[in-house]
Amino acid sequence: MLGIGTGVHAGSSYVLTDLKEATGNTAVSLQLWLQNDTAITAAKWTDQSGNNNHATQSSEANQATVSGGGLDFEEDQDDHYDLSNTIAIGAQGGFCLAVVLQLESNGNNTILSKDSSDQFRVTDGTTFRFKSNVGGNITTDFVFPAATFATGEKMLILLNRSAGSSNKFTFEKNGTTLTADVDLSSNEASGENPNGFDINILGGHTGASQFFDGEIYELAFWNRSLTATEIADVNSYLQDIHGL
């Protein structure tokens, strides 16, 4: 049984019927929800969080293709989208990013960004990078074994950071907690990256480089850290929806 929500019973299991239920049935902290197969066109993916942080691209040449209920980005076409508003996380602020995606290449696949020092991206099939610049530029690299982020594999990635100067990261793939290689990783331990940051670009680094190559099926971002129960519920909801 999942921990939170007012979903429905299906046989002996309890199923959330809306992602908002997983975090208290409210959109207060859910700042961005690009929901699969919901209000999506090549020009606009309408935010379902209630905050109107829609992902839009007016230039047809830089639009991704609607596929699988999400967007299929082509790196060589510079596909990317602007969010209607900038989402800001202050220094020592908690947050959670959950994204269902599939990579088509092992380059610098930027998921979200704002400027040269703020970004979330997957690199080389082994590394998830989080960069922040409020309070000084810090790059956090979570390095995992080869093919952790293999091309052609549909996967759910979740990164949660607790609030405070002694922040703690939780990194999960398909509902399983992953432990980064401490010898190859950087600033991934508790208290090593409590910096703030901004995001307002989907699928590119400031909309100018390191474009995402593959499909983003669903994405949600909270401006606070989630509890262990909430993380479990978010994972369960997205894994059920996407068959992971």
Describe the structure concisely.
The protein is mainly β and 244 residues long. It has one helix at 228-242, and strands spanning 8-10, 13-15, 30-34, 44-45, 55-56, 65-67, 70-73, 81-89, 95-103, 108-113, 119-123, 127-132, 138-143, 155-161, 169-173, 176-177, 197-202, 214-222.
- Work out the radius of gyration: 17 Å
Q: End-to-end span in angstroms?
A: 18 Å
Largest sheet: 8 strands, antiparallel
Residue fraction in strands: 35-45%
Number of helices: 1
Q: Low-confidence parts lasting 5 or more residues at pLDDT below 50?
A: 1-14
Query: What's the order of the H and E elements?
Result: EEEEEEEEEEEEEEEEEEH
**Net shape:** globular
Mean pLDDT: 90
Structural class: mainly beta
Care to count the β-strands? 18
Helix content range of the residues, please?
under 10%
Can you tag this structure with a few keywords?
244 residues; disordered N terminus; 8-stranded antiparallel beta sheet; mainly beta; 1 helix
What does this structure look like?
With 244 residues, the chain is mainly beta. Helices cover 6% and strands 38% of the residues. The protein has one helix and 18 strands. It has one helix at 228-242; strands at residues 8-10, 13-15, 30-34, 44-45, 55-56, 65-67, 70-73, 81-89, 95-103, 108-113, 119-123, 127-132, 138-143, 155-161, 169-173, 176-177, 197-202, 214-222. Strands 3, 6, 7, 9, 14, 15, 16 and 18 form an eight-stranded antiparallel beta sheet that branches. Strands 4-5-8-17-10-11-12-13 form an eight-stranded antiparallel beta sheet, with no helix packed on it. A two-stranded antiparallel sheet has the order 1-2. A hairpin with a 5-residue loop joins strand 12 (127-132) and strand 13. The longest helix has 15 residues, at 228-242. Residues 1-14 have low confidence and may be disordered.
